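stuck on this chain:
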Amino acid sequence: MPWRLFGLIVIVGILLVFVGFNLNNTCSISFGFVSFTDVPVFLTIFVSFIGGMLCSLPFIIFKTLRKKPRPEKPEKSRNKEESPADNSAGAPYGID
């Protein structure tokens, strides 16, 4: 069973129940120079939620665009056998 589809159906069902219970609840919204009356409460909540998501969108975009440089991997240390100081033949860096 596709769990994402099941989850989406449950979320939409919960939203419909919320809207159904709040159809009669209204409020007035004033922007200072203009006032809206009899606005349903669920509409006010949804618009506020969408506005919050839009305000956070620039931060998310900036974070994904900013690329952090990857730290370089340190070189593996040489074994004592490969070290030029321990070369018994006397040739530097193991060159014959």
